[in-house]
Amino acid sequence: MSDKIVIGGVSVDTRHWIGGERVTSGGTFTDHSPIDGSVLGEISRGTPAEAAAAVAAAKAAFPGWAATPRAERARILHAIADGVEKRLEELAVVETTDNGALLRSHRRGVMPRVAHNFRFFADWLLTLGHEDFDTRGHTNHVSWDPAGPCLLITPWNAPLMLATWKVAPALAAGNTVILKPAEWSPLTASLLADIAAEAGLPAGVLNVVQGYGAEIGDALTSHPDVRRISFTGSVPTARRIAASAATNLTPLSLELGGKSPLLVFADADLDLAVDLAVEQYDNAGQVCLAATRFLVEESVAEEFTRRFVEKATALTQGDPRDEATDIGPNIHPRQLEKIDGFVQRALAAGARAVIGGHRLDGQFYAPTLLTDVRQDSETVQEEVFGPVLTLQTFATEEEAVRLANDTRFGLAATLVTGDPGRADRVSAQLVAGTVWVNCFFVRDLQAPFGGSRHSGVGREGGTWSFDFYCDLKNTVTAPKGWTDRG
Q1: What digits encode the pLDDT tens for the residues 348-362?
Q2: Of these residues, 288, 383, 460, 470, which one is catalytic?
Q3: Structure confidence at residue 483 (pLDDT)
Q4: What span, in angstroms and rounded, lies between the C-alpha atoms of 39 and 430?
Q5: Angle at Cα 201 formed by Cα 199 and Cα 205, nearest 5°?
Q6: Which of 52, 195, 363, 419 is 20 to 30 A off residue 273, Cα-Cα?
Q7: Are 292 and 388 in contact (CB under 8 A)?
Q8: Is the pLDDT of residue 482 over 90?
Q9: In contact, 390 and 380? CB cutoff 8 Å
Q10: 181 touches 189 (CB < 8 A)
């Protein structure tokens, strides 16, 4: 078996990256492209041995990296960003082939954001701090101490962007990292290891371990030398991670699923509302923040639906490498089965597919809008993670808020209204980590990000990331020296 595969002229190493070296495993797993189901290559399949080696490497490298001055850490993070920008096209091609998201999106938005993640947290590090404060003449000084080796477990829907959203602040804070990418889209994490090494990141500071779920995950999440765990993924997996981490009381940051609402009031700009609604099919519906539940005021529901159908049916579905494509494939046959199961059960229970409602050739699912759905139905209550949306109507503002909040999730919400007072009232009542008013997916890295209820634990972004990735220490100094007790 070759240790490297070539995708679009780009060579990708299929081995782990541990302690500044490529490491192979005894076994492998097969990586397929969702575009056509073709085999991309055999990837080293990690075991508890590779997990232990990665944590040991991160632990050994931690003292040196933690002691590295902030300015030098920031310089290296900027050099990683330079490397991302230099290889932006390569990263875009590899990630599109590996996870099926649009190449044009990777080129124009996702990969530039990857570079920005490193630059932002490098710059934020240099301004991080608290002013000293006084307590009866005693000086309080707050410092941000690196926590230690951090385990970062990332999903398959936006592999590199979501990985670097965690890697960048963890490294900036002075921690070392063990990155576990999703097995359905592992390739750009390997390229990131190359870029980081070329940028001068010391050996062992970033480690990448590939593998399947519990085979390697339990060994990592239960390891006593892991000081932080950040996970993005499903609620069931988060429960398993939390149980494993509990043995060592390892602090967790969990960004989990969503079932976010899009509330459209009669006073809304309907063209804007429809544009935002159609945007929910982005990445074939594989976006945790997607507003998958349309809640539309009764008086405009018919017109909203008519305009939505007109715009949604004009979307082009096909090869994500084609500039004209709007919707690519879903990630994996197993995910496609899950999506179709939701839809077929909903139809059998009386829901109506206004558009879609069926599989297409390959790993494609027709963009779907379901109406006549019950509030307690699984399609309304559970995350489908595919191009499947539901539409319900409401008569009053109070009913809209009640329906919006009536799930176990609370990741995000989108509100479209022409009334600023209503925007303020409704936003204040919505249970969500992020509320967008007359916009969608506008994210600033300095803002807190995370979910409520079953959508997650904790917040990251800006100073909140450093709160998580650091141990904050308060040093209190007496006013007249160490020996004065008076």
Answers
A1: 999 999 999 999 999
A2: 288
A3: 53
A4: 44
A5: 150
A6: 363
A7: yes
A8: no
A9: yes
A10: yes
> Structure pTM?
0.95
95 has catalytic annotation: no
Rounded-to-integer distance, Cα 10 and Cα 144, Å: 39
Give DSSP secondary structure letters for 441-482: S---TTS-B--EETTEES-BSHHHHHHHHEEEEEEEE-TT-T
| Residues whose CB falls within 8 Å of the CB of residue 427, separated by 6 or more in sequence, listed in order | 413, 415, 435, 437
Residues 307-314, mean pLDDT to the nearest whole number: 98
Contact (Cβ atoms closer than 8 angstroms) between residue 63 and residue 79: no
Sorted by sequence, the CB contacts under 8 Å of residue 445 that are 6+ apart come out as 116, 117, 120, 121, 124, 461, 462
Q: Does residue 389 contact residue 293 with C-beta atoms inside 8 Å? A: yes
Q: Does residue 485 carry a pLDDT above 60? A: no
Q: Which of 50, 183, 255, 460 is catalytic?
A: 255
Six token digits for residue 364: 């494609």
Whether the Cβ atoms of residue 78 and residue 119 lie closer than 8 Å to each other: yes
Residue 200 contacts residue 122 (beta carbons within 8 Å):
no
Please provide the distance, in angstroms rounded to a whole number, between the alpha carbons at the two ends of the chain.
73
Ramachandran region, residue 232 (left: φ > 0; alpha: ψ -120 to 50; beta: rest): beta
Mean of the pLDDT values across residues 286-291? 95
Confidence at residue 486, expressed as pLDDT on a 0 to 100 scale: 42
Query: Which residues, other chains included, contact 137 with Cβ-Cβ below 8 Å and sequence gap of 6+?
Result: 478, 479
Q: Within 13 Å, how many C-alpha atoms sit on residue 113's CB side?
A: 20
Residue 255 is among the residues annotated as catalytic for this protein: yes
